[in-house]
Amino acid sequence: MVDFRIAAKSFVMNDGKLLVLKRRPNDVQKPSIWEIPGGRLEPGEDPIEGIKRETKEETGLDIEVHHPINIRHFERDDKQTITMLIFLCKAKDTNVKLSEEHTDFEWVPIENCKEKLTDFFHKEVDIFNKLELNKLL
Q1: Taking the model in full, what pTM does it have?
Q2: Which one of 23, 109, 119, 124 is most buried, counting C-beta atoms within 10 A?
Q3: Are 7 and 87 in contact (CB under 8 A)?
Q4: 97: buried, middle or exposed (CB in 10 Å: 19+, 13-18, 0-12)?
Q5: Where are the domains of the chain?
Q6: If DSSP states are collapsed to H, E and C, what string results for the chain?
Q7: Are 18 and 108 in contact (CB under 8 A)?
Q8: pLDDT of 23 above 70
Q9: What is the pLDDT, as a whole number, of residue 1?
Q10: 4-136: what fold?
Q11: What is the pLDDT of residues 92-109, one digit of tens each?
Q12: Strands 17-23 and 4-14, bridge-based pairing
């Protein structure tokens, strides 16, 4: 049996800054990395509703979902196969209230975010910049 899930991540922007979250140091998958909000969807869950739910659970923020930036397909360290949708989003406010899944957050200027953000999401930063998506927000 294949262990397969759909995931969604939110590339949350506000005033030219990207929201990045730091995973707990004892996290089973990729401990202590700086990432963007989101996670695995419930089977059959609408991706737009799922990313709103995941972002709200992890950050306390309500977001506007604009459109997909990228789709990734990969295998996790635990051999689970993931298809991940990454959406461009705008925060409705900036009052982050972290869940227990993360230990810290920062609003990082998009031009500096690769210095903090895990390499895995650098591709989305490049797409954001190349398509000048900041003009849409």
Answers
A1: 0.94
A2: 124
A3: no
A4: exposed
A5: 4-136
A6: CCCEEEEEEEEEEECCEEEEEEECCCCCCCCCCEECCEEECCCCCCHHHHHHHHHHHHHCCCEEEEEEEEEEEEECCCCCEEEEEEEEEEECCCCCCCCCCEEEEEEEEHHHHHHCCCHHHHHHHHHHHHCCHHHHC
A7: yes
A8: yes
A9: 65
A10: Nucleoside Triphosphate Pyrophosphohydrolase (3.90.79)
A11: 999 999 999 999 999 999
A12: antiparallel
CA distances from 117 to 5, 103, 113, 131 (A): 24, 15, 6, 20
Give the β-pairing of 38-40 and 63-75: unpaired
Q: Which two structure tokens, joined as six digits, stand for 100?
A: 């227990």
Structure tokens at 52: 């709103």
Confidence of residue 122 (pLDDT cuts 50, 70, 90): very high
